[in-house]
Amino acid sequence: MSIRSAFPKSFAPPVFEPGWVWLVGAGPGDPGLLTLNAAHALGEADVVVYDALVDERILELARPEADLIYAGKRGGKPSPRQRAISLRLVELAREGRRVLRLKGGDPFVFGRGGEEALTLVEHAVPFRVVPGITAGIGGLAYAGIPATHRDTNSAVTFITGHSVTGEVPDNLDWAALARGAPVIVLYMAVKHMARIADKLIAGGRDPAEPVAFVSNAATGDQSVIETTLGEAGAAAARVSPPAVIAIGPVVGLRPALDWLGAARDGRRLVPDPLGHKARDEAM
Question: What is the pLDDT of residues 49-69, one digit of tens each?
């Protein structure tokens, strides 16, 4: 069965015109998390320029005639420069091709999609943005960790773990984040986790606060390491990137909400690990 035949009859996807670039989020890994527009784009594109974090099963959905161009950027490994990738998109579009720029997660959440889009604007190349499920939400959900929960947090803060120089971002008020962000979700932070934990603890964060590292989220290789903020630096040495990191009370809900791990291991979930039901009944 083709991708197109699986769409609802009432679904009328936008036309993917020659000379256009679509910036598309592929989600955190599981091909089932693709949007209908993303799946439609894969079936229409003449060329797919894809990142390192795009699951191979998603690339298999591209039409057989499409050219696949790898443009992955991984820390510590030779990678194409961002400007070169952006200009390559311009070049391909000017050839009259339908260009799909496929990025893991969401292109506008630490995905540098905004930079690529600005380059397209600079060169008068038309484009469309197709959002995807970002790892800080979807990846954590596959690990049984909600980004928000009524009884624990009314806010969540997303932070990149490294700046354009590759170091810990120095333009952030870490003390304010330690005090004001009940739940922190870190992207690309494994390498600098020890320094980040020190900054948060110095700002008043509890060293005993729960932390979870979710590696290869929403894939068959997903693994989760739970620890505390005080031990997070040491635990990071056991983590295989790519990983998304959750800090805060929502990590404590994992024994009750780890639906994927329970299904894999054949175990029962623990009801109400934080005692919310007992508290509600007492109110």
Answer: 999 999 999 999 999 999 999
Which residue in 46, 73, 198, 199 is the catalytic one? Answer: 73
Among the CATH numbers 3.30.930.10, 3.30.950.10, 1.10.760.10, 3.30.420.140, which is that of 136-282?
3.30.950.10
242 cis-preceded (ω within 30 degrees of 0) = yes
Is 51 among the residues known to form the active site?
yes
Q: Which of 51, 55, 106, 258 is catalytic?
A: 51
The single residue of 55, 188, 191, 258 carrying the catalytic annotation is: 188
Q: What is the pLDDT of residues 215-262, one digit of tens each?
A: 999 999 999 999 999 999 999 999 999 999 999 999 999 999 999 999
Sheet holding 127-130, edge to edge: 67-70, 47-50, 99-103, 21-25, 127-130
14-133 is a CATH 3.40.1010.10 domain? yes
Neighbouring residues of 46: CB distance < 8 A, sequence distance ≥ 6 = 18, 65, 66, 67, 97, 98, 99
